[in-house]
Amino acid sequence: MGREHRSGFERGSFRDVYKALRECDIAIEVVDARNIEGTRLHRLDRTFKSKLVIAAAKCDLVLGCPKEMRTRDGQHVIFTSTRSAKGKELLFEEILRMGQGIRDRDALRRQKKREKRDTSGDIYSQQIGRQAAGMGGQRHVKTGGTGAFAATGMIKIMVFGIPNVGKSSIINMVASRKVARTGFKVGVTRGPQWVSLGKGMLLCDSPGVVPMHSSKGELALKAAYDVDRLEDTEEVAEGLIREFVLEKSDKLAKCYGIEMSDNPEEVLERIAIKRNFVKKGGVPDIERAIVTVLRDFQKGKFVF
User: Fold this and answer.
1) pLDDT band at 1 (very low <50, low <70, confident <90, very high)
2) Spatial CA neighbour of 30 closest among 168, 223, 172
3) Does the CA dihedral 40-46-47-51 come out positive or negative?
4) What's phi and psi for 91, nearest 5 deg?
5) Using an 8 Å Cβ cutoff, are 296 and 221 in contact?
6) Given 3.40.1110.10, 3.40.50.300, 3.30.465.10, 1.10.645.10, which CATH number is that of 1-214?
7) Which candidate in 29, 31, 82, 286 could, as Cys together with 169 as Cys, close a disulfide (CB 3.0–4.6 Å)?
8) Torsion angle, CA of 166/34/75/94, rounded to 10 degrees?
9) Strand ranges (DSSP E) for the chain?
10) Cα 294 from Cα 82, distance rounded (Å)
């Protein structure tokens, strides 16, 4: 569906986020509740699965969604809505639970290292140590931990995901105040933004990561690429309509107040007529209908 899109910005963005994820302690991937698997960054998920929790945003657009679930590969998903604050407490509790686990593991490492140092030193090294202590000498002992906590004592939490999936809104919800810019236009977050959550934790918003082998059309359906910059909008819109036809869903028909057809071209024509998108001579303006369908889907006016 369309040409593969791999810009230098996307490669750079992926590298930057990958590096930040290596250095953080907890990773929150924000996905779209309407299409969880389709909006996951599986390459990053596999690499950082031990520190990962998934926040499925915009769950108010999905009827009957649960509070939480497990993906096929066992990842924990918490459904969230910034409009109703659904999932806010559950997500924050999960962050606290993971953070406490990090602190407990670090404390255990410190204890084991002290015990090993105390029991393995011979008399000579102990004498040298006492002499150094008597002279006021101090030795810095590393914790042996990994991630930001071992280095700074602060638990660093990274939020990542494809563009326009709702990362900044999730941060605002968890922090209980507006700390990150939000907006529908792709690319609102320009660089890392650190937010203090208290309790020794820092939260970082990242620029959206575009999957390196995704076509523009697939990204548009994930609300991750500007529709006006697509070259094959008709193909994308018809593919989207075809999905609703195959699922025998009436959501598209209800959204536009039309009768469905098995032919995507007829559906677009009916939408154009219903919305009064007509050219001179009363010809339906299919181009306007195409753009309307794509943007409405991205904004959640109708979902699978």
Assistant:
1) very low
2) 168
3) positive
4) -65, -45
5) no
6) 3.40.50.300
7) 82
8) 50
9) 26-32, 52-57, 68-70, 76-79, 155-160, 193-198, 201-205
10) 23
